[in-house]
TrEMBL record, chain A:
Transmembrane segments: 20-47, 59-78, 84-107, 114-134, 140-160, 180-209, 240-257, 294-312
Protein name per its UniProtKB record: ABC transporter permease
GO terms under cellular component: plasma membrane
Matching InterPro entries: ABC_transp_permease (IPR001851)
Subcellular location as annotated: Cell membrane
Alphabetically ordered keywords of this record: Cell inner membrane, Cell membrane, Membrane, Transmembrane, Transmembrane helix, Transport
Primary localisation category: membrane
Membrane topology: Multi-pass membrane protein
MF-aspect GO terms: transmembrane transporter activity
TrEMBL record, chain B:
One Gene Ontology MF term: ATP hydrolysis activity
Keywords for the protein's UniProt record, in alphabetical order: ATP-binding, Cell membrane, Membrane, Nucleotide-binding, Repeat, Sugar transport, Translocase, Transport
Protein name: ATP-binding cassette domain-containing protein
Domain ABC transporter: 7-243, 260-502
Native organism: Sneathiella chungangensis
């Protein structure tokens, strides 16, 4: 601080500071370009179209979860249950494709693809609603509430099949469920359907965050819950929404994975929640709430995804990959802190300049 | 009578990036005397105190203790030199007990590890007796009201036996009886040779208690002398560089019809005691009603009842004669009631968010079609209010935390006005803001009343309630103990009513202190 203290403070330092600030603001994006450029040189076949498609599909899965997670973290909460919701929703989807609903009356109800999607999404939202109710009505801390549902949902997924995998989810044309595989494998205009869904969800979430009162309220709840409540924000409703939305995102991932693999396995999605949190944090979301952007989160998900796929292609040991991922996350948060400091200093300076 | 100089600053300069907080100041602290320091917000008072308390170091100049130059490297260093400070911002741990807070960082230890809780409790008990407060040493600080927390903060500094004690706005959340107790404690400390640095915005208080006065303006010292012959106009003139800004005088206007009525509002706290006890009142359009009372009189809680913060409170509210049935804050705001809370930092604003986002938070509905927020329209409306209220901001996108207290308060007021209210509830609207900003806030209240808004405000400042209100209501122990038109009352009636139901006399004559 004292090194800054020249008496003729403002102009030159302020300019270089705001330039630095701009770089820091775009840091996730710069990191993305750097990672991308690095692997383009270092990893063979990295730039091929086939690789791009595969990679973007990997990234998309994490990006969905990270979008939901971002809203939750902005309200000052956390959702540890998303990985388990992915597993549970995958199992529900698998069950519906294979067996439909059988009441044991000698006949069963079979569903077409759209109905299956709708039901699975409802399951995801329902688990999110449980999270929300625990947190708002029973005042359970978000960490604990979602830790609980993490176990419950995972256990439920295992119970579905007794731990076995549901194979061959090819569906049945008679019931109209044969199109289920398109979700993970189909493409429109050369772009995988998964990516189209990501674009749709991503744009929708970004719009919600910046251009709707609900978005504003989400930030307000995380910034100062008591203050938001006294300003007329319906805090509990906002919290219910973010956990339900996070559940919805997890359900989408569950559907896509079981469609991609044409099978559903109850252990699917383990530790996914951690990747989602990492992407959100890498994208500049503050764990203490009130701050974060959807675009940042998506870029963060891409950085993590490209990093891990690129390292695989370079033949780096998977153990080292884990270490590197951890270091990147720590570095991101350290830079984020620096940005906060400079940002507040710039704001203070412009305010001080006004007082003269 | 002479007072030895215990600490002094010579040619002290403190530069922050982009701003000079202290510019070549000379300041003396005399022992066995009350050294008053006064100035508008941002004048450099807090910076000077931080330097003395070791929180900040001077960029240039020297700090002398007993004539020897010292470099204070931190608060612990300052404490070792016998310097204690009560910060304006409360530095307490809400989840720890009163005694744990008082001994934070210098616990009484047995064998170097074991905290001697019993002894700490006893000492705390004695401190509370000295401050004439019935706060149990085991109460969690978070359960205390702000004024009581301030008492704890003061007790904390008494516990260290400081030779130089800095009190930064100690009375801002205290009621008049508590102020009297504090003054007694100060007189006692002074008699023991402690050098007290006393900072406050309440000028009469300064004149009453001070022995020496130093006035700061924009980092310069504009006046320093013994308190003899100092009067309010002298202080104000040195502070703001012009003649006294008076309380905004009432613009004569007629009141409209009744806009708000509360009937038999009661709020029960655990222990069977009523915090708000059968309170009924009404408010007309264009009327300013001041609610005066001691701390814990139930004034803030009454406001909280209006804003549905206490779901189990009983009684009925009416707006424009229609019962207020909405059960949410949002619903009540829609009916035209809005609250400007007492604690700006904790509940009034979202510090990390921008001025724009803060101001529009309660009125987003006005900028929304279906679900789409019109950012242009929002920004325009915010800028209109920024201009109307003369809020000094470099950009509406700057975080609220970068503004001074007075400007922050104006942002809170702007936020309330943007909901287009009919009834404005203001809880301690002038708390922690400087004289200039205060005058502007009061003028604004007058203007709003003249436009037909009904204003209900709570204050612990007698002058404020006397000069600003059209009608005065006094509360004590949860009940209304007095209600008059302003012209039908005087200060002693108001003070007497505020003490109804309290065991001991609360008004101590000034002579007692001046002995």
């Amino acid at each position: 601080m004292t090194t800054q203290s020249t008496t003729s403070a403002s102009n030159p330092t302020a300019n270089s500071q705001s330039a630095l600030l701009l770089i820091l603001r775009l840091r996730t994006f710069i990191a993305l370009i750097a990672v991308f450029a690095f692997f383009a040189f270092a990893a063979p076949n990295f730039l091929t179209a086939a690789n791009m498609v595969i990679m973007s599909k990997h990234v998309a899965l994490n990006a969905f979860l990270a979008i939901g997670m971002t809203f939750v973290i902005i309200t000052g909460g956390i959702d540890l249950s998303v990985g388990s919701i992915v597993g549970l929703c995958g199992m529900v989807a698998g069950w519906l494709v294979l067996f439909g609903v059988d009441f044991g009356l000698g006949w069963s109800i079979q569903f077409n693809t759209l109905e299956i999607i709708a039901i699975v999404l409802c399951v995801g939202v329902f688990v999110g609603m449980i999270n929300g109710l625990l947190i708002t009505k029973l005042s359970v801390a978000p960490f604990i509430a979602t830790l609980g549902t993490l176990y419950v949902a995972r256990g439920a997924a295992l119970l579905f099949s007794d731990g076995r995998t549901f194979p061959n989810l090819n569906g049945n044309p008679e019931y109209g469920s044969d199109t289920f595989v398109l979700l993970g494998a189909g493409s429109v205009l050369g772009i995988p359907i998964t990516i189209w869904i990501l674009i749709f969800v991503g744009l929708g979430a970004a719009y919600l965050a910046s251009r709707t009162p609900l978005g504003r309220h989400i930030y307000a709840v995380g910034g100062n819950e008591k203050g938001a409540a006294l300003s007329g924000v319906k805090v509990n409703q906002v919290k219910m929404f973010v956990y339900m939305f996070s559940g919805l995102c997890a359900a989408i991932v569950g559907l896509i994975i079981s469609s991609q693999l044409v099978a559903s396995h109850p252990a699917t999605g383990e530790t996914f929640e951690l990747n989602a949190i990492a992407a959100a944090v890498l994208g500049g979301t503050s764990m203490s709430g009130g701050r974060g952007r959807i675009a940042g989160t998506i870029v963060g998900a891409f950085v993590i995804g490209i990093l891990s796929d690129g390292l695989v292609m370079m033949g780096v040991s998977s153990f080292w990959q884990i270490v590197i991922k951890g270091l990147v996350i720590i570095a991101a948060v350290v830079v984020d802190q620096a940005q906060q400091k400079i940002q507040s200093r710039v704001a203070l300076q412009s305010q001080a300049a006004l007082g003269k | 009578m002479t007072h030895p100089i215990g600490l002094s600053i010579r040619n002290g300069t403190k530069v922050y990036p982009g701003t000079i907080a202290l510019n070549n100041v000379d300041f003396d602290v005399r022992l066995g005397a009350v050294n008053v320091l006064v100035g508008e917000n941002g004048a450099g008072k807090s910076t000077m105190m931080k330097v003395i308390a070791g929180v900040e170091q001077l960029t240039d100049g020297e700090l002398l203790i007993d004539g020897k130059e010292v470099h204070l490297r931190g608060t612990a260093d300052a404490a070792a030199h016998g310097i204690g400070i009560v910060f304006q911002e409360l530095n307490l741990f809400p989840d720890l007990s009163v005694s744990e807070n008082i001994f934070m960082g210098r616990e009484n230890l047995q064998f170097g590890v074991h905290i001697d809780r019993k002894r700490q409790r006893e000492v705390t008990q004695r401190l509370m007796e000295r401050l004439e407060h019935k706060i149990s040493p085991d109460t969690l600080v978070g359960d205390l009201r702000i004024g009581e927390q301030q008492i704890v903060e003061i007790a904390k500094s008494l516990a260290v036996d400081a030779r130089i004690l800095i009190l930064d706005e100690p009375t801002s959340a205290l009621s008049s009886s508590e102020v009297e107790i504090l003054f007694k404690v100060i007189a006692d400390l002074r008699a023991r040779g402690v050098g007290i640095i006393y900072i406050s915005h309440r000028l009469e208080e300064l004149i009453r208690i001070g022995d020496y006065i130093t006035v700061l303006r924009d980092g310069h010292i504009t006046g320093a002398r013994s308190m003899e012959g100092v009067d309010v106009p002298w202080i104000v003139q040195n502070m703001i560089g012009s003649a006294s800004k008076d309380f905004a005088k009432s613009v004569e206007h007629d009141f409209g019809k009744e806009v708000f009525r509360a009937e038999n509002i009661s709020l029960l706290r655990e222990g069977g005691k009523f915090v708000v006890d059968n309170v009924s009142l009404s408010l007309k359009e264009g009327e300013i009603v001041g609610i005066y009372g001691l701390m814990g009189a139930g004034r803030s809680e009454f406001f909280e009842c209006i804003m549905v913060q206490h779901p189990h409170s009983t009684g009925r509210f009416f707006v424009d004669g229609e019962p207020l049935t909405e059960k949410t804050v949002e619903g009540r705001i829609r009916r035209g009631i809005v609250l400007i809370p007492e604690d700006r930092k904790a509940v009034g604003l979202i510090q990390m968010h921008s001025v724009r986002e803060n101001m529009s938070l309660s009125s987003l509905r006005d900028f929304t079609r279906w679900f789409h927020l019109d950012l242009e329209k929002e920004k325009k409306a915010v800028m209109d209010y920024v201009r109307d209220l003369t809020i000094k901001i470099a950009s509406p996108e700057n975080p609220v935390s970068s503004l001074s207290g007075g400007n922050q308060q104006k942002v809170v007021i702007g936020k309330a006005l943007m909901t287009k209210p009919k009834i404005l509830l203001m809880d301690e609207p002038s708390r922690g803001i400087d004289v200039g900003a205060k005058a502007e806030v009061f003028r604004e209240m007058r203007r709003l009343a003249a436009e037909g808004l009904g204003i209900l405000f709570v204050t612990s400042d007698l002058d404020e309630v006397m000069s600003l209100s059209d009608r005065i209501i006094v509360m004590s122990n949860g009940r209304i103990t007095g209600e008059w038109d302003r012209k039908d009352t005087n200060e002693s009636m108001v003070v007497a009513a505020s003490a109804v139901g309290h065991a001991r006399a609360t008004h101590i004559p000034e002579k007692e202190l001046a002995e």
